[in-house]
Structure formats: C-alpha cells, structure tokens
C-alpha cells in the first residue's frame, strides 16, 4: 500500500509538470501573445527612433535597414550565431562585427579568433612565430581584425556599457542610451538613435552646402545628402587644354574629352582621327633613320627625339666577356680562344668549352648526388635531378594525413585532400582543403516557406529545422474537405484545416435545413480499447477517429395542438406529433352537469358542425347520482341518475304527524312541497278536535291546527259569587 501511494504521488507530480509545460508552450505560441509581443515591439522601435524622426525631422524611410536588424533582434530564432548554428538569446553575451553587423556569441567568436590565428601561424618556424601580427577574419564578411582586437568582454551595441542588463522594454543587448557613434563616412556628427544593432542610418543634420561645380548658391540640405548637382554644364577645362566639360554638374574629375581630332603620331609620319583625350600615339613603322655611323639605320619603332649612337660602336666584349675589342661597327667581335668559364645551369660547375657564341651546353659531369630527402646517394650526371622512391611518412599540417610524396625534402606541402567533414548545418560537407580546427560556417542559406509558399524568410543553412515557419497573411487556398463548396476564410497554415464551422444546411427529411455546424469530419473519442496491465502503466490517451456524423433531429419549433385542443405549444420538428397536455379533458358530458375527468385525449368528432367542447365517444360516461337541488322540503333524492334538465316530480309518500301529534298522516311529497301555507295547514291537519287544554282547563274546541290554541274559550261554567251564596 505504501509503495502504491508513493507511486501515485510521483505520477500526479509528473502529470502536473507535463501539463504546465504544455500550457506554457501553448501560451507562448498563441496568437494573443504574438499580438501583444508585436505591440510591445512596435512601442520599443518607436521609442528608439523618436529622436531621429521628431527632433531632427529625419526621413523614416532611411531607417529601413536599421529597422530590419532590430526586427531580427526581437524575432525568436531570427538571430543565429553562424559559428555554432544556435539562436542568440537576449541573456547571452554577444559580439557584433563592425563590417557586416552580424551577431555572434562572445564565446564562439573568441574560439573562432583563437583557431584562426593558430591555423595561420602553424606553418611558421619557431624563429618567425610572434614576429608578425597576423589578422583573424569575421566568419561572415571575412573582414580582418588584428590580434589585439579579439573581443574579451561583453559590451552593448554602442560600446558604452559593459554587461548591459536585460530589460524587456529595450532592444536586446542594448543599453538604452543614445548611440553617439560617428557616421560612416565620417561627417563630424554622431548617431542620434538609442543604442541599436546594425548600421547607423544616414546623418539627418542640416548643413549649408553648394553644388559640385560651385556655381549655384549654397542651400540647406541633409548632411547625408549634402553633395548635390545643379544640373548646369560643368564648364571646367579638360585635360586636352582645348575644350570645356559639357557634362552636367558632377562630382570628382571630369571625364576624358570625348571629341575626335586629327593627330600626328610621335614620329610625325602618319595622321589619324583620334580621341582628343589621347593625343600621344605610336604608329607601327620602324624609324629607319640613318645612325651617326652612316652604316646602319635606327631599328626602333616610332619614337620621339634623336635616334642615339650606333649600338655596335665603341668597345665590345667577346662572347665569354673576358676580352674587349675596339672595332668598326661593320665588323663582328671575334672569339678570344680562351675557355668560356660561365657558370652552368647547375650553379656549381663552369663551362669548359672555348669562348663561343650562343648558350652553354648542359652540365655533363658525374657527381655524387644526394636525393631530396637525404636518405640515399647516387653517382649520376650533374644536370639530372635525383629523386628516390621513398615515400614521406610525416604528417601534414592538417595533422590527419601523411605526406606520401616521393623523396620529400621535409617541407611537406599543404594537404591537398578535401576536408569533407559534415558542417554544423548537417546538410553540407566542408569543401575546403583538409585543415585543423573547426570548419568554417556553412555559407549557404535556406528559404523557409509557409505552407502556400508565398511568404519566405531566408535563414542560415541548418536553422530550417528549428526555426518556426513564417506567419503568412494569405488566405488558405486548399479545397474544402466537407460538402460545402467553399470553406471558411482562414490564414495559410500547416497541417489539416480547422474543423468547418459553417452551418450544415443539408435538407432534412422534414424539409428543413440542418442548422448545426458542419459535422462531416467530427472527432469521435474511442474509449475502452486498451486495458492497463497494472498501476505502473501510464493510461493511454483516448483515441480519436474522424468520421461523418448524421444530422441531429430537427429542432425547428412547430406549433402543435394537444389532443384535447386545450393549448398550442411549439415543439421540435422531429417530435411534432399530437400530445397530451396532462390536463383534464373538461368536455361537457351528456348529463350537461359534469365534465370529462380523463387526462387530455383524442376526441372523435361525429359531426363537423358539433361544438368543440362537447364530449365524444372517447370521453368517460357520467356515473354520478343526480345532485341537482331538490324542492324546498323534499328530503328525497332524484330517482334518476345524473341527467340533463329538471328532475321529475317526487311521488313518494311522506309519513308525518299532524299538528296535534296524535295521528300519522301519509301525504305525497309533491303536494306538500308545492302547497302554500294555508294548503300545508290543511294537509297536516287530522281533522279531529284539538286535544290540547286551554289555560282554563277546557279542551280546545278547534280542529287540529298548528301553533297555540286561541284563548277564547266559549264553554259555560258554574260560578259562585264572592259570598258563595249564589251559583250560576
């Protein structure tokens, strides 16, 4: 249990780290972040160019080259060290070439300079080493730097600040101060931009200057364009001394005179039309004038001045040069008869022939000769070179291959084999001769294109595998893969096109159009395909397959009336059928007193003109008793079940006592309930004498009646007077 718990903790930590890494990569490559970075980059560039464009009214178009270098400084992967073929990051120490402004890692350029100096000085002997300051070249433009100019510290672009701090609101490797480097060519002013990569822009200062020919009035102009032409004829006298320059006002010396004139050659014999700018010319005739000796003529070709003395006059030497003779110019110098003694071509022996004309013969003396490598000797004619067959086993300057030259003198020539090592780009091989140290960077460049090929960026060879393809602003031109004729507009991209989000618009069986997003290429997750063998096996991601899904049921609202016609509700088209609203039916039954209590149901109309609220054959039948109110005084129920109209008359007999409570009478209920007060009084009377006693003690003489008896008793009684003596 403890090991499983520990395994789960480690697994969760690894998954969290991987998730964070993916999120970071996605956030760094999202379009929102790219847009924010572009806005931030634009603000930094505007801040850098503020002084140039606002305070000096500089032309922003002249900043394009500098802007390009700065854009590359911001763009990820655009700045590449050509030595190590790796990206130059903003927190790395760098060095910039003053010739091509290419940026290298400081460590890489130091190693490059060291290796270059070692390769140049390696063929030297110990005596010559260190006597000459050999330069080292820039890897890109081959601009030469002295040994003392090898970079040792990291400076900003303008060279003011050592180890500039990393500031996200400044150009990478910039100190943020004004550049103040002198313009090239020097004009006496300094750069006004903030510390920046690449060349400084043209000088924006205003100066007062005149034109090239100095004829026009001085006008204020930009220092970078202070040389200007007034376009008037130059008028300066040309080198011919006869004509004036007719070209428009121009810089530098005037061109040679373009006019043609007749000019004599140097000797004056021939005349030809030639350019006025080249009056001196020679004809091809020999001079032929008689020399002072009177025996010979001048053999020089067309020349100026006197011909000079005869070359055969005065003292002349014999062919070997030992004896001099004074002879007339008409006679040849004879040989002296002495040995020639001129040093032969071998440089050791002298010619043993007598004084002779012409070249000496080759040296034929036999000598003991040593071969060039000094390992063998042989007796042979002096004029023949002696080379043995021994091959040199010394290692050449590449420190890889043997010399293998026959009879080598020890000064082995440079290695003549091709290096052939794979360069840092991993695409090409080194074409240079075999050498020591690192190979030069690959000089080739590669075009990295977008998917459609219309947007191209040029990167050093080898960087095409790591640099991101350029963002193309062209719309994707691929044909749609779904049933739509055109796809949604989106920019050029690699990989599959994004899922189509257009409405499907297929015609459903009901006749409506499918309103949901296109589902021809929906990704469906497949789960349960693989069962893990244990807790140590990482759960595999669910597989997704691309398939066309059917159109979902139609959801267009259709007004539908319920079965009992109580309401009309909008229902989805796919389920637009008569339905029960769950209310009571409510239709009036045949009894005309009650309604149908069934749940909302279908009712068949027997007659088209029938009332819509009348019950049909499907409605329930009323099984209630009649509940209509009875006439006043009738205690009986209606003998009929629930019925329409009035109830029938009640014919039941009521058993009721008379007013005097002595007799029981049987009276029809209808008569009793329909009688008025007087009739009720008669009906409830038993027709007998009322049995009640009056207060006087006599019986009531009236017929059975209701209420109290009257006190008017008419019975005669015997009464005595107060004195009791008389009785009446």
TrEMBL record:
The keyword Metal-binding applies. One of its GO terms (molecular function) is zinc ion binding. Keywords: Metal-binding, Repeat, Zinc, Zinc-finger. SMART domains: ZnF_NFX (SM00438). Residues 187-205, 240-259, 293-312, 346-365, 373-394, 398-417, 425-444, 482-502, 591-624, 634-652, 696-715 form the NF-X1-type domain. GO terms for cellular component: nucleus. Signal peptide: none annotated. Belongs to the NFX1 family. This is NFXL1 protein.
């Amino acid at each position: 249990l403890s090991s499983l718990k520990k395994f789960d903790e480690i697994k969760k930590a690894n998954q969290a780290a991987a998730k964070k890494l993916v999120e970071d990569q996605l956030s760094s490559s999202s379009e929102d972040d790219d847009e924010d970075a572009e806005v931030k980059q634009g603000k930094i560039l505007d801040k850098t160019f503020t002084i140039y464009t606002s305070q000096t009214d500089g032309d922003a178009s002249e900043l394009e080259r500098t802007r390009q270098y700065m854009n590359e400084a911001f763009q990820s992967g655009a700045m590449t060290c050509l030595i190590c073929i790796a990206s130059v990051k903003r927190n790395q120490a760098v060095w910039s070439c003053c010739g091509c402004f290419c940026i290298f890692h400081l460590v890489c350029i130091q190693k490059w300079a060291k290796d270059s100096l070692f390769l140049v000085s390696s063929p030297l002997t110990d005596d010559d080493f260190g006597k000459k300051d050999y330069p080292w070249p820039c890897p890109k433009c081959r601009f030469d730097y002295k040994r003392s100019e090898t970079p040792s510290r990291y400076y900003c672009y303008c060279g003011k600040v050592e180890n500039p701090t990393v500031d996200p609101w400044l150009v990478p490797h910039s100190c943020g101060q004004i550049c103040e480097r002198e313009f090239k060519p020097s004009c006496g002013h300094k750069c006004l931009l903030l510390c920046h990569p690449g060349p400084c822009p043209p000088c924006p200062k205003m100066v007062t200057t005149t034109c090239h020919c100095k004829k026009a009035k001085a006008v204020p102009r930009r220092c970078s364009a202070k040389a200007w032409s007034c376009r008037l004829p130059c008028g300066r006298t040309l080198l011919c001394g006869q004509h004036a320059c007719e070209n428009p006002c121009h810089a530098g010396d005037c061109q040679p005179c373009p006019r043609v004139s007749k000019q004599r050659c140097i000797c004056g014999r021939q005349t030809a039309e030639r350019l006025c700018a080249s009056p001196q010319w020679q004809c091809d005739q020999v001079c032929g004038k008689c020399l002072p000796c009177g025996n010979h003529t001048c053999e020089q070709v067309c020349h100026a001045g006197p011909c000079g003395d005869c070359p055969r006059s005065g003292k002349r030497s014999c062919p070997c040069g030992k004896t001099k003779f004074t002879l007339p110019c008409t006679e040849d110098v004879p040989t002296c008869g002495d040995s020639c003694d001129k040093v032969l071509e071998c440089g050791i022996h002298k010619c043993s022939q007598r004084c002779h004309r012409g070249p000496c013969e080759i040296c034929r003396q036999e000598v003991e000769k040593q071969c060039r490598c000094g390992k063998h000797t042989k007796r042979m004619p002096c004029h023949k070179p002696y080379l043995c067959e021994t091959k040199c086993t010394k290692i050449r300057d590449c420190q890889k291959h043997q010399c293998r030259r026959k009879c080598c003198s020890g000064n082995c020539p440079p290695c003549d084999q091709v290096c052939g090592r794979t360069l840092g780009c991993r695409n090409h091989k080194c074409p240079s001769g075999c050498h020591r140290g690192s190979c030069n960077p690959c000089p080739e460049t590669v075009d990295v294109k977008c998917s459609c090929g219309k947007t191209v960026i040029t990167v050093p060879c080898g960087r095409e595998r790591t640099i991101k393809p350029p963002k193309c602003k062209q719309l994707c031109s691929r044909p749609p893969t779904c049933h739509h004729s055109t796809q949604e507009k989106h920019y050029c991209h690699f990989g599959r096109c994004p899922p189509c989000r257009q409405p499907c618009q297929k015609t459903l069986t009901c006749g409506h159009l499918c309103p949901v997003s296109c589902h021809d290429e929906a990704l469906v997750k497949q789960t349960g395909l693989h069962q893990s063998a244990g807790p140590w096996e990482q759960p595999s991601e669910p597989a997704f397959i691309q398939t066309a899904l059917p159109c979902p049921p139609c959801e267009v609202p259709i007004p539908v009336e319920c079965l009992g016609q109580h309401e009309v509700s909008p229902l989805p088209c796919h389920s637009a059928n008569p339905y029960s609203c769950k209310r009571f039916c409510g239709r009036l039954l045949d009894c005309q007193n009650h309604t149908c209590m069934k749940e909302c149901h279908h009712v068949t109309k027997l007659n088209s003109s029938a009332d819509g609220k009348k019950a049909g054959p499907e409605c329930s039948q009323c099984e209630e008793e009649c509940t209509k109110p009875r006439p006043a005084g009738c205690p009986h129920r209606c003998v009929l079940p629930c019925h329409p109209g009035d109830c029938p008359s009640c014919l039941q007999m009521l058993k009721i006592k008379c007013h005097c409570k002595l007799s029981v009478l049987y009276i029809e209920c209808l008569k009793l309930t329909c009688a008025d007060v007087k009739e009720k009084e008669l009906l409830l009377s038993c027709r007998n004498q009322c049995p009640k006693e009056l207060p006087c003690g006599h019986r009531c003489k009236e017929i059975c009646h209701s209420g109290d008896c009257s006190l008017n008793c008419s019975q005669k009684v015997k009464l005595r007077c107060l004195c009791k003596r008389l009785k009446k």
